[in-house]
Amino acid sequence: MFSDKDISRFANLETPFYYYDLSLLQNTLKTCADAAKLYNFHVHYAMKANFNPVVLQKIKTTGFGADCVSGGEVSKALESGFNKSQIVFAGVGKSDKEINLALDEDIFCFNVESVQELEVINELAAKKGKKAKVAIRINPNVDAHTHHNITTGLDENKFGVNSWDLPQCAETLKASANLEFIGIHFHIGSQITNLDVYKNLCVRVNEFGLWFEERGFTVKVLNVGGGLGIDYHHPDQQVPDFGNYFKIFSDFLEIRIGQEVHFELGRALVGQSASLISRVLYVKNGKKKNFVVLDAGMTELMRPALYQAYHKIENLSRGKQVALKYDIVGPICESTDCFGKEVEQPETFRGDLYAIRSAGAYGEVMASKYNLRDEIKSVYSED
C-alpha cells in the first residue's frame, strides 16, 4: 500500500523504476530469522530471486547464507560480504570454470546434481590438492502443485539425481578421494502455497537419509530447499507464514543428533518488498478491447510473459473506484508484452502512475536489453 507521500514522490521521478520498501524487507527478514532460530535451522538466501546490492546488504546483515546457481552468483555473494562458510553452489550445469572458482574460494558445499558432476568435481579438486564438500541433490518425485514451469522435483524434470542412479552415486562417492559427502539436498519447486506439500517432502527426505546411512554414510546436513510462496493477489498481506513453514519440518523430519537442517528461501524473503512503478504512455479504447500502454514492459518484468504470472496492478493516480476493464500492456514489439488482460481499473489517462505489485522476486534480475531498452533503475524507501 502506498501513501500519498509515496505517490507524490513517484510523480517527480522518471519511470519506469523498481521501488523497494526496505522497512518491509527488514521486517520480513527478521520474522524469518526469528522463526528459524526457534529450531536452530540454517537459512541460505536464493540469490537468483534478486541480487540488487542494497537488498543483498540487508540480507547479509541478517546473518543468512547464500544459495548460488552460477559462478557469477558465487562471486557476487563473496563481493557482498557473505561468509564463504555459508555459501552453497547448486545448479544442473556447473562449468569447469565455475567449479574451479568455488574450489578456490573454499565455499561451504556443492549441491551436486549428477554422477558425472561428482566425477568432474573430484577431478578438478584433485588437481588443486583440495577436498570438496558435496551434498547430493536428489529428485524426490514430489509434486509441488505449482506452475509446471517452476516445478523441479518430478522425475520429468532435469534437476537432481534420480533414485535409480543413487547406487552409482554412492559408489562414486566412496571411490572419490577428493570429495567429502556431507548431506542430501532437495528442491521441489517455487511459489508453493500448499504447505502440506512439504509434509510429503519430509517423508522422502527421511527415506533418502536412511538410505545413505544404511550404506555407511554420515548425513550431516539435510537441505530441504525452499519454494515457499507469497500472496500475489493480496500484496498488503505481506509477510509469509514462516512459523508454520518451519514447524512442519520440525514436526515431520526425523532429525538425528548433530544434524543440521538447511533452507534456501528466495521469493518469500524479497517478493513483496518491491513494486514496478510505471507511467501511462497512451490509452487506446476500442470496440472489443481497451488498452493501457505503460512505459514498462516485459523487458522490465518478464514473469507475466514467461509464466503467465499474475501481479496485482494498481492505478495510483485515480483512487480505487473501478470504471473500465483494460488490457495492461507494455511498449515492447511482442504480443506477449502484457501484464494483465481485462483488468478492472479506474478510468485511466495519459500520465497516470501505475504500480505492478509483488515484483521483488524474479523482477529486476530478469530485466533485459531487448529493443535496446534503458537499464531499469531502482528507488528505495530510505532514499
Can you walk through the features of this model?
This protein is of the alpha/beta class. Helix 2 (22-37) packs parallel to helix 3 (53-62), helix 5 packs across helix 6 (115-128) and helix 8 packs parallel to helix 9. Helix 7 (166-175) links the parallel strand 6 (132-137) and strand 7. The strands form two sheets. Strands 1, 10, 11, 12, 13, 14, 15 and 16 form an eight-stranded mixed β-sheet that branches. Strands 2-3-4-5-6-7-8-9 form an eight-stranded parallel β-barrel, surrounded by four helices. The chain starts with a helix and ends with a strand. The chain has two domains: 4-17 and 272-380, Lyase, Ornithine Decarboxylase, Chain A, domain 1 (Beta Barrel); 23-271, Alanine racemase (TIM Barrel, Alpha-Beta Barrel). It is built from eleven helices and 16 strands.
